[in-house]
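Lecture notes, continued. The same structure-token format from the folding unit now serves as the input rather than the output. Read the line below as a description of shape only.
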């Protein structure tokens, strides 16, 4: 299965790419009920629910099914969320926190329901989750999380042990969490969508959308698509819009390894560091693996991303008897300004919907997005629409993050104005090395492959003009301002940019 990075995730290696049955059987003149943009867990789940409700949907995926974060996930399913319930109560209300908890629980139930309808075994299982506090300050925060979890109706208990021998001063165990085989689940969703009459068109990037006589007209690489309603399930909405400011891009790192002693932990485990570390066991291809992750940072802000895997591996070796590190990969997510995703009607755009800002809870919030968007399209309302309203403005809740993240963006924009390292000879660039250089007065992004092939592109991101940085482990050019990512040859991997980097013929 293809993904937006050079490293192979555990899901890719154990599953074949899904082959859509319907990509050659769509009509440019037909007006579909819903055009879904994006073939990840969010778009596919929404498509399944809408097809079941009698809506005719067509799904356009710029690359291949699951290409983005859906195949880079570690696929935890949680009511225990990155934004804690005390934070939601403080920034929104206690009632909002109860709704978020209810929605997360419904999302996990829906994953279980859809898993049961699939021909493929996607490994959905319910698991308990442990949250571990190591310091006195973390214990105080843990007690607040425990009390809030009780208030919002989540099953939780205080415990003194966990499945992993991590340092702990106190711990809580949360009931009814879950996990899934992401590769199998994505394939299963695509199959359910097509079986219910949905159409999938891969390698179909949308370049422009207009609206005429209550119809969205989308120009794509493969022709024109028409639909009454439009849903952006693209992780971050494409182009220049407010969500590039309201959502900040981050990378998270994961490794999967086997154990010499066979003592695989049963459950999901999280510490309370910032960024936090997370662990679980996955059986796939008849073999158990521990999947561990963390060490997050803002996209494009880390000079040596390869070294992060060295740090992650050194960290887990303190607590596990590792036999073999089998996989390592990284993935992208977006942090919303006030802590909750933006899911619902796209402000100022008729019959247009979006879902973005899932933090590290992509599979949970992606599935909840499907419930919300399908309800809005079917019934014109959802019980969750107010709390996740994309048009909401919470100045107090958002102020700190908006200031911090966007000063960061401004810093990167200004930093990109300084001169680059001067390159005298192309031979100065080692195989496998990428860097921004000055060549004959021009600023260029240059990469020499292991086979010594040279790739030269314009380093200025076409989204809003930031200068990209080289990602050493995923072999991509990453924008440090808003998270657009490009292949070594400038091909667009992920938005919000709508086009790739300009190529130079050297």
């Amino acid at each position: 299965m293809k993904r937006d990075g050079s490293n192979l995730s555990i899901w890719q290696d154990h599953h074949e790419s899904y082959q859509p049955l319907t990509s050659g059987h769509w009509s440019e003149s037909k007006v579909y009920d819903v055009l879904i943009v994006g073939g990840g867990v969010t778009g596919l789940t929404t498509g399944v629910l809408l097809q079941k409700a009698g809506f005719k949907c067509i799904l356009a995926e710029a690359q291949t099914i699951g290409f983005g974060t859906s195949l880079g996930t570690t696929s935890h399913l949680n009511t225990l969320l990155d934004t804690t319930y005390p934070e939601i109560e403080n920034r929104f209300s206690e009632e909002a926190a109860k709704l978020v908890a209810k929605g997360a629980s419904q999302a996990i139930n829906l994953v279980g329901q859809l898993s049961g309808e699939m021909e493929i075994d996607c490994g959905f299982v319910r698991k308990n989750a442990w949250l571990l506090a190591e310091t006195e300050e973390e214990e105080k925060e843990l007690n607040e999380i425990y009390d809030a979890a009780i208030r919002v109706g989540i099953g939780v208990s205080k415990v003194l042990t966990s499945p992993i021998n991590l340092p702990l001063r106190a711990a809580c165990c949360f009931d009814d969490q879950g996990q899934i085989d992401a590769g199998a689940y994505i394939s299963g969703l695509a199959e359910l969508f097509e079986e219910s009459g949905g159409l999938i068109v891969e390698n179909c990037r949308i370049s422009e959308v207009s609206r005429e006589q209550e119809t969205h007209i989308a120009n794509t690489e493969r022709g024109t698509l028409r639909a009454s309603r439009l849903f952006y399930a693209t992780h971050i909405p494409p182009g220049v819009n407010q969500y590039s400011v309201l959502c900040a891009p981050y990378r998270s790192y994961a490794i999967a390894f086997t154990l010499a002693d066979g003592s695989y932990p049963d459950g999901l485990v999280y510490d309370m560091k910032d960024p936090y570390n997370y662990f679980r066991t996955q059986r796939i291809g008849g073999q158990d693996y521990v999947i561990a992750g963390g060490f997050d940072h803002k996209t494009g802000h880390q000079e040596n991303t390869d070294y992060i895997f060295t740090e992650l591996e050194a960290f887990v070796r303190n607590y596990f008897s590792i036999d073999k590190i089998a996989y390592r990969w990284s993935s992208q997510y977006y942090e919303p300004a006030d802590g909750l995703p933006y899911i619902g009607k796209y402000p100022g755009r008729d019959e247009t919907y979006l879902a973005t800002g899932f933090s590290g809870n992509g599979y949970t919030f992606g599935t909840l997005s499907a419930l919300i968007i399908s309800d809005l399209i079917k019934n014109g309302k959802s019980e969750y629409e107010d709390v996740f309203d994309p048009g909401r403005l919470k100045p107090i809740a958002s102020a700190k993050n908006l200031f911090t993240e966007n000063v960061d963006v401004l810093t990167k924009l200004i930093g990109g104005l300084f001169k680059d390292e001067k390159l005298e000879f192309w031979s100065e660039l080692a195989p496998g090395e990428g860097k921004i250089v000055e060549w004959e007065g021009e600023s260029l992004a240059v990469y020499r492959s292991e086979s010594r092939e040279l790739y030269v592109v314009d380093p200025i991101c076409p989204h809003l003009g930031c200068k990209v940085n080289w990602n050493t482990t995923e072999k991509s050019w990453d924008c440090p301002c808003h998270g657009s990512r490009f292949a070594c040859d400038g091909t667009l991997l992920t938005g919000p940019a709508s086009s790739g980097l300009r190529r130079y013929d050297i």
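Point for the exam: The first helix runs from residue 10 to 14.
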